[in-house]
Design goal:
The chain is mainly alpha-helical. It has two domains: 232 residues, 3-Layer(aba) Sandwich (Rossmann fold); 80 residues, Tyrosyl-Transfer RNA Synthetase (Orthogonal Bundle). Helices cover 50% and strands 7% of the residues.
Length: 356
């Protein structure tokens, strides 16, 4: 059932509205690649329960908010398929099989998993399901057999175990020579391509605190749905350490990360860099306003598109869209699971799923 285009799978865990870090890290790539690739975009609402199992209402609301942000960004439901994780049974089934191919100590060495344990202060007080996040993410990706996974820089670590388990499955159950180049696994008879990560043009956007990566939980994010007033206020609080407009400034600070990310006139960027480095009578405040205006110009069409999905009627539209896309996603996922089970000598019958 695959078409002639190579396939993409990527997505987001529903933790609230998306921000500029998501845009430059991954969303921008997703929008740009829709014509070139067959795109599947996943809302990882099952994974959200690994740390927020006591907040089902919040997870449901965040799920709808992410879809609204995607539509606002320009992800086109006529060209891309939205995947609601909890409605794809093949993901959970494939997770079980892949869990047998990943050693526990390899799962726990995942740097992103370790970072989550530290930043959330979980210590040893995490659920049995928490480390399954790593295995589940492998299944999220592989069940759609993508060649490419657009991600933020911090998610690259999640793709490596996925690549490892894809190689191991293909070698163990499809007889692929371990010396085979990654690009040739499917051609040699493997079920799964070995997916490549694709990082956005800004690998890690600093938040408005000027120190940490942009994050909702750190209260340093500019959201894609923010008004110009909010954008300007948040940019105004960005710390640079510079005290006077005639003082030479460091053009490698957080403010100039924003300048280079959101002001697209290269000549203007070069002019701002020169004046700032020379202390040529240009203040941080002036540059912050200019950046805020550039961000607002980019986000204004997104806010307008998002407005069509606000309120109860908007939620109903999102739910109808997700139900429609669930069938498309299951068709693709069931095809992969059937191929995997056949390779594992588990092809005792066939099944068809239908959703309404």
């Amino acid at each position: 059932m695959r078409n002639d285009r190579p396939r993409i799978l990527t997505g987001d865990t529903p933790t609230g509205r998306l921000h500029l870090g998501h845009w430059v890290g991954s969303l921008e790539n997703r929008v740009a690649l829709q014509d070139e690739y067959e795109c599947f975009f996943l809302i990882a609402n099952m994974h959200a329960f690994t740390t927020r199992a006591d907040k089902p209402d919040d997870i449901r609301e965040s799920t709808l908010e992410i879809v609204k942000d995607w539509l606002a960004c320009g992800i086109d439901p006529e060209r891309s398929t939205f995947v609601l994780q909890t409605e794809i049974p093949a993901i959970a089934e494939l997770s079980w099989f892949l869990a047998m191919l990943l050693p526990f100590n390899r799962v726990m060495r995942n740097p992103t998993l370790k970072h989550e344990l530290e930043t959330k202060g979980l210590g040893d007080n995490y659920s049995f399901g928490f480390p399954m996040y790593t295995v589940g993410q492998c299944a999220d990706i592989l069940v759609f057999r993508p060649e490419l996974v657009p991600v933020g820089e911090d998610q690259l670590a999640h793709i490596e175990p996925c690549r490892e388990v894809a190689r191991r499955f293909n070698q163990m159950y499809c007889g692929i020579d371990p010396q085979t180049d990654d690009a040739d696994y499917v051609e040699q008879g493997g079920v799964f391509p070995i997916p490549e990560g694709k990082v956005g043009r800004v690998a890690r956007l600093i938040g408005t605190d000027g120190v940490n990566k942009m994050s909702k939980s750190l209260n340093n994010a500019i959201f894609l749905s923010d008004s110009f007033k909010k954008i300007k206020k948040k940019m105004g609080g960005l710390y640079t350490g510079r005290s006077a407009m005639d003082e030479p400034g460091d053009i490698n600070n957080a403010l100039f990360d924003y300048v280079r990310a959101f002001i697209h006139d290269k000549e203007r960027v070069a002019e701002l860099e020169r004046k700032y480095a020379d202390g040529d009578n240009i203040g941080d405040g002036h540059i912050k306003v200019e950046v805020a205006e550039a961000i607002d110009q980019m986000l204004a069409p997104m806010r307008e598109r998002r407005a069509a999905y606000e309120g109860k009627d908007g939620d109903d539209k999102i739910l109808a869209l997700l139900r429609e896309h669930t069938q498309k996603a299951n068709d693709a996922a069931e095809e992969t699971l059937s191929m995997a089970k056949k390779a594992m000598k588990l092809d005792f019958g066939s099944r068809a799923l239908s959703f309404n």
